[in-house]
Amino acid sequence: MRAGARPIFADVDPTNLNLDPEAARARIEQSPSPKLKAIMPVHLFGQCADMTGLQTIADEYKLVVVEDAAQAFGAAWRGKRAGSLGDIAAFSFYPTKNLSCYGDGGLVTTDDPAFWPSM
User: Fold this and answer.
1) What is the DSSP letter of 117?
2) SS3 of 101, please?
3) Could you give the residue ranges of the DSSP H alpha helices within the chain?
4) For residues 25 and 118, what is the distance between their CA atoms, to the nearest angstrom?
5) From CA 102, how far away is CA 45, in angstroms rounded?
6) What are the C-alpha distances in Å from 114 to residues 2, 74, 96, 106, 110?
7) pTM for this one?
8) Going by fewer Cβ within 10 Å, which terminus of the chain is more open, N or C?
9) pLDDT tens-digit series, residues 17-69
10) Could you tell me if 68 and 43 are in contact, meaning their C-beta atoms sit under 8 angstroms apart?
11) How far apart are CA 41 and CA 20, in angstroms?
12) Looking at 30-73, which runs of residues are DSSP E strands?
């Protein structure tokens, strides 16, 4: 929100509490907007969201996938680790997270040079 984005929420899968791809698709179809830029699944409790379903939607609507992997260190989806499944991933090292630091900290990962800062 500080960057000017406005989140639009979709429901979770009741079996794992991660973003439900069908609920995400329904929200996109319910309120289509050219301003829609990304899907942001939040991996919870050491479990990855259904990244196959979410990536299919992202590809269809030309959206960036930004993973919130703060609660999924070491988790995997179909053999790939959380933090390497989307276009960009964010990890938090806040003291209450699974992997924490003394104070506040975080990490952003990507393998796409389009998201690398200019140096």
Assistant:
1) P
2) coil
3) 21-30, 51-61
4) 34
5) 21
6) 21, 26, 32, 21, 9
7) 0.84
8) C
9) 999 999 999 999 998 888 899 999 999 988 999 999 999 999 999 999 999 99
10) yes
11) 9
12) 38-39, 64-68
